[in-house]
Design goal:
heterodimer; A: 105 residues; mainly alpha; 84% helix; 0% strand; B: 236 residues; transmembrane helix (chain A); transmembrane (chain A); Brnchd-chn_aa_trnsp_AzlD (chain A); membrane (chain A); Membrane protein (chain A)
């Protein structure tokens, strides 16, 4: 059980960067008066972050021919629309992706 | 300015948040084990890998940083590593900003430690919980703590098990987090404002992902979408 000083320094640099990111936006919003307009932008932020995380990955997956990824995401979309259950969406998406990859992978 | 009533932070809320994360745990465990196993290639000791997951607590950034990991750190390479980590996880700046109206009601000695538990999945789940009328910050903290705990434990297990881990893609583990995001996203749909905001976020992030290297596409797409949605006036 040893820790190399160089590696430890690198890990601490990363930890400082992630802590800065976690606290930075929250801290910054102290200085921004929350007008109704700012409030609306903040309300739209969660959905926009999720879409920006999801869609490029799905498109890149489709471009690379990863039909398991595309099929799994489509299944998650349908299941969560129909059932509103995140557990079901996750399980069905995994099953569909694994199935497609097993047959065409 | 009148101070808003502080949001509660209870053990019951923490337990509820932790329970809500259970469907995600196989995915987080698999990802953590993959990091633990991959870190062996870069000569991480068990302690180094575990400490990294415990205090960095950012799966994507840790994985990406591993690509360029070296045994001989210089001021220049440390600076580059810091900058890489900042950009890969810059979405956390936006996510933290979106928590201001909620966590901002708490004193700083509670809100800032709570923010250190912020990961994509517990942030998304907590905001859905709040959109449905919840107000207990414990939900955010509890869902973050269980994510952190499983992430750190899985890193150690992955490092111990080493190369014997089956390909996570074959069983669809890589779909766990995106499928969960979809389930968190859909209930937010209310009409025109989302159509514009999400459409712009999708188009801009995808376009940027093809044009710019790195991880800028998340932040640029998200900011563009939030502004477009926030400046769309409908009858709400």
């Amino acid at each position: 059980m040893t820790v190399d000083p160089g590696t430890l320094t690198a890990i601490l640099v990363m930890a400082a960067a992630t802590a800065f990111n976690r606290a930075g936006g929250f801290w910054l919003m102290r200085l921004v008066p929350v007008t109704p307009r700012v409030r609306r932008v903040l309300d739209c932020l969660p959905g926009a972050v999720l879409v920006a995380l999801l869609v490029p990955g799905a498109v890149q997956g489709a471009v690379k021919g990863d039909m398991g990824m595309v099929g799994g995401l489509a299944a998650a979309l349908v299941v969560s629309r129909l059932t509103r259950s995140d557990l079901l969406a996750v399980v069905v998406a995994m099953a569909v992706a694994a199935g497609i990859r097993a047959f065409w992978g | 300015m009148t101070k808003p009533h502080p949001a509660p932070l209870t053990l019951a809320g923490m337990a509820e948040g932790a329970r809500a994360m259970l469907p995600l745990m196989p995915g987080i465990a698999a990802f953590g084990m993959a990091f633990g196993a991959a870190s062996i290639q870069k000569s991480f000791t068990l302690l180094e890998a575990t400490v990294s997951s415990a205090i960095v607590f950012a799966g994507l950034a840790q994985m990406v940083a591993l690509e360029g990991w070296t045994q001989h750190w210089t001021a220049g390479s440390l600076l580059a590593l810091g900058f890489l980590t900042l950009t890969v996880n810059m979405r956390h700046v936006l996510m933290g900003a979106s928590l201001r109206p909620w966590l901002g009601t708490l004193p700083a000695w509670k809100s800032y430690p709570a923010l250190m538990m912020m990961a994509d999945n517990n942030w998304a789940a907590a905001l859905r919980y709040r959109a449905e009328g919840g107000n207990d910050v414990g939900y955010f903290v509890g869902s973050g703590l269980i994510t952190w705990f499983v992430w750190v434990l899985a890193t150690a297990v992955g490092h111990l098990v080493g190369g014997g881990i089956p390909d996570p893609k074959a069983v669809g583990i890589d779909l766990v987090v995106p499928a969960f995001f979809i389930a968190m996203l859909l209930p937010n749909w209310k009409g025109k404002r989302e159509a514009v905001g999400w459409g712009v976020a999708a188009a801009v992030s995808t376009a940027v992902s093809f044009v710019l290297p790195g991880w800028w596409f998340i932040v640029i797409g998200a900011v563009a979408g939030a502004l477009a949605g926030g400046f769309t006036d409908d009858d709400r």
